[in-house]
Design brief:
Elements lengths: L5 H15 L14 H6 L7 H8 L2 E4 L4 H10 L4 H4 L2 E5 L9 H6 L8 E5 L10 H15 L7 E5 L2 E3 H8 L7 E6 L1 E3 L15 E6 L4 H10 L8 E5 L8 H9 L5 E7 L5 H8 L5 E6 L4 H7 L7 E6 L11 H10 L7
Parallel strand pairs: 1-2, 2-3, 3-4, 4-6, 5-7, 6-8, 8-9, 9-10, 10-11, 11-12
Helix pairs in contact: 7-8, 9-10, 10-11
């Protein structure tokens, strides 16, 4: 095979890996890139180092695969831990996962920026939730020492608000925080845990109770993060609750706003749009009826993007008057930058 500069080979492999990368958590094994990236390393010795790096850049671990993964790390000639950029931890109801020595070894992951934690349904007979939540928080505290982690996602069905706050506050260098689940059980937090002031993006997709509890926590912080990008599920938000109070206080900072699960009747979504006076991008996802009310709620004169993803499953829903909406968007000075 003709020799090419190593820099060119690395660039080609980087581009190929980027095209093959998938969504976190949807591929079996440790790597989320599929088999293609790994087999490229068998072409020749020049391809091997870069292919190996991409093969282990995304790692998914479960309690059943921990030992075999570290056996591979210990026997490999490549520094696998230094390749990991995204780590996906899938907890099981059994609180035992990484032992202290294994948790410490992840400090070698100098490129680790993205961390996912998936928590199982604990509504099972014999599950000791106290021990489980203590284990989750212990893992978060150990991994929070890794200074390069800037993106964190936690997915669950139902957990106490205090546990969620304890986990997310363990990462002092976060830029992006993603919280998704069915329910946050509201509990009193005597002393608010400080949250990374670097956070500029919040994706909050809790669909049940406890939505206002998390935003009450944000309001209680003496030095809260300044959120420029907010993705919010407003389906259960109380128009008089902490979500709206937070948006009233900090809405002027928000530049990109996504509102999901918008029901037929809600004032929370309209208030969120109204308080975002410097909004540049607005996405509405849900039934979003009547749409004219949401258009009228826009107070920003900087809006550049306005996208609507409307659910049309209900037969009794009156369709939006699109001609009137178009007329408003065309004539109103607020929308000249669209």
């Amino acid at each position: 095979m003709r020799d090419f500069p190593q820099e060119l080979i690395d660039e080609i492999l980087d581009q190929a890996a980027a095209q093959k990368s998938g969504f976190p958590g949807f591929s079996p094994g440790w790597s989320l890139k599929g088999k293609g990236v790994g087999t490229r390393g068998l072409v020749c010795r020049q391809w091997w180092p870069r292919s190996r790096m991409h093969l282990f850049s995304h790692v998914t671990l479960r309690p059943t695969t921990i030992q075999s993964f570290f056996d591979l790390v210990d026997t490999s000639q490549s520094p696998i831990l230094t390749f990991i950029a995204s780590l996906d931890l899938r907890f099981a109801p059994d609180p035992r996962f990484l032992d202290e020595g294994q948790r410490t070894r992840f400090r070698e992951c100098c490129q680790l920026t993205n961390l996912w934690i998936y928590l199982p349904n604990l509504e099972l007979p014999g599950t000791d939730t106290t021990e489980f939540y203590s284990s989750v928080q212990l893992h978060a505290s150990s991994l929070g020492i890794v200074p390069s982690i800037s993106w964190f996602s936690m997915n669950f069905e139902s957990i106490p608000l205090s546990v969620a706050v304890g986990v997310v506050s363990a990462f002092p260098a976060l830029h992006t925080l993603r919280v998704s689940g069915l329910e946050l059980v509201r509990v009193v937090i005597p002393q608010p845990h400080p949250l990374s002031v670097r956070i500029h993006t919040l994706e909050f997709g809790v669909r049940g109770e406890g939505v206002d509890g998390f935003f009450s926590y944000l309001l209680s912080l003496p030095d809260p993060p300044l959120l420029r990008n907010v993705d919010l599920d407003v389906g259960r938000a109380d128009p008089d609750g902490a979500v709206v109070h937070y948006l009233r206080k900090s809405g002027s900072i928000i530049q990109h706003l996504t509102l999901e699960e918008i029901p037929l009747e809600t004032s929370c979504a309209r208030l969120a749009i109204q308080y975002a006076i410097n909004l540049q991008d607005l996405y509405l996802i849900g039934e979003v009826v009547p749409l004219l009310d949401f258009v009228a709620a826009v107070s920003s004169h900087k809006l550049a993007t306005f996208r609507i993803y409307q659910i049309l499953w209900a037969e009794d829903v009156t369709p939006n008057p699109w001609s009137e909406i178009e007329a408003v968007l065309t004539a109103d000075s607020r929308f000249r930058g669209l």
